[in-house]
Amino acid sequence: MSNQPSAAASARAFVPANRVRGFGTTVFAEFSAMALQYNAVNLGQGFPNFPAPDFIKRAAQEAIEADLNQYARGAGQIRLVNALAETYGPLFGRELDPLQEIVITTGATEGIFATMQGLVNPGDEVILIEPFYDSYSPSVIMAGGTPVYVPLRATEGTRRASEWWLDMDELAAAFSPRTRLLVLNTPMNPIGKIFSRTELAQIAALVQQHDVLVLSDEVYEWMVYPEPDGAPVEHVRLATLPGMWERTLTLGSAGKTFSVTGWKIGWAIGPAPLVHAVLMAHQWIPFTVATPLQEAVATALEQAPKEDYYQWLATTYQAKRDKLLVALEDVGLTPVRPDGSYFVLVATGHLPVPVPEGTRRDVAVARWFTTNVGVTAIPPSPFYSPDHQYLTDNLARFCFCKTDEMLDEAARRFRAKLG
Ligand SMILES: Cc1ncc(COP(=O)(O)O)c(C=O)c1O
């Protein structure tokens, strides 16, 4: 018998590393494929399907024309970090050091990953408030950390995202001597809740009491809508609360802000030692981020205030949100009115959907929306840990970051099948 290794790889060769073995594919892969198969209106995955603003597209074209094609500065193009310091300095109420307090990441998703790699040691605990953007827990796990889950609570039939609450006793009980970090997301995907100043102050008090850090994911910072009576809803940046700048990293995303999710440009802003830790990980993850797109985002940030862009964005999304809310209410569905983000949760308990053995109800309902109504939703259970997934059995998530034509077509299909 030859002692040469066999040319055919053994089964063992194909076994993924332990750190990823437990991961499934994202929920978006299944539902986007299903939307295509059934020719459904895809209100599942949250990416805008309308054109990005001309001024940002032109800026990217000009950056490529100017041959800005080589590696960028590791922590981010100087022009972009300067533009971010200009933009966020007044929002954080402090002068920002563009060279030490800002790092550009490959979208906020890499900001999350690099933060965990840079700040979480194996055995550390990271508190995640449920429901959460689904990259949080894999990022914690790949850093060797342990996610500790605290679900938001809501009463059945709640119609306002702001009525979902964080039980502060439950949150307090989640801290331990091993807690390193808490992840906050406001405005929140998938509920559309914006944490109030009072709630944030309570979170801040616990975080300070236990001497832990916060990753504040604020990628939907500009998608904030007024109360029905027109009163403004305030998006409070956690880092502006007393004693919080020192222990908070705030994430932003050009993808969300300028409707260019495929560009994957994000940023982390915070005190120099925290930004340095993120940078130490970031330099070995992507090394640097796409140079011409960073330049284009710098231009966009410089021009946005002159174009009244942020106000336009909020007003545009508010109209789209209202269109979707009306379409859902018209056919007797009960949406949870979001104050921010571009998602709407909808109560589905009354829908007569058969649930196959071994399938979560929210997954069956989301599939049913695609196959029977022709409009794709996302089940919210992947935004929860397994123990808490039952909380979403009677919910589906739709997004409204789509053209008016697409939202109108969804409304027609709702009326045809559910009206
Ligand atoms: C809460 C939240 N954070 C981060 C991201 C990802 O941001 P980016 O596209 O910049 O990686 C998303 C995208 O859906 C999100 O919902």
Strands across the major sheet, in which order? 2-8-7-6-5-3-4
Given as residue ranges, the uncertain stretches (5+ residues, pLDDT < 50) are: none
- Tell me the number of structural domains: 2
Q: Encode the helix/strand succession as letters.
A: HHEHHEHEHEHEHEEHEHHHEEHEEH
Taken as a percent bin, the fraction of beta residues is: 5-15%
Our measurement of the CA-to-CA distance between the termini, rounded to an integer number of angstroms, reads: 72 Å
Measured as a percent range, the helix fraction is 25-40%
CATH class wording of the largest domain: Alpha Beta
Mean pLDDT: 96
Which value, in Å, is the CA radius of gyration? Answer: 22 Å
Beta-strand segment tally: 12
The assigned structural class equals alpha/beta
Reported for the largest beta sheet, the result is: 7 strands, mixed
List each distinct ligand once. pyridoxal-5'-phosphate
State the shape.
globular
Count of runs of 4 or more consecutive helical residues: 14
Structure characterization notes:
- It is a single chain.
- Helix 5 runs parallel beside helix 6 (136-142).
- The protein starts with 17 loop residues before the first helix and ends with a helix.
- The strands form three sheets. Strands 2-8-7-6-5-3-4 form a seven-stranded mixed beta sheet, sandwiched between helices. It has a three-stranded antiparallel beta sheet with strand order 9-10-12.
- The protein has 419 residues and is α/β, with parallel strands linked by helices.
- It has two domains: 22-46 and 309-418, Aspartate Aminotransferase, domain 1 (Alpha-Beta Complex); 54-303, Type I PLP-dependent aspartate aminotransferase-like (Major domain) (Aspartate Aminotransferase, domain 2), CATH 3.40.640.10.
- The chain contains 14 helices and twelve strands.
- The longest helix is centred in the last third of the chain and has 22 residues, at 309-330.
- Pyridoxal-5'-phosphate is lined by residues 46, 107-109, 133, 185, 189, 217, 219, 253, 255, 261, 266.
- Pyridoxal-5'-phosphate (PLP) binds next to helix 5.
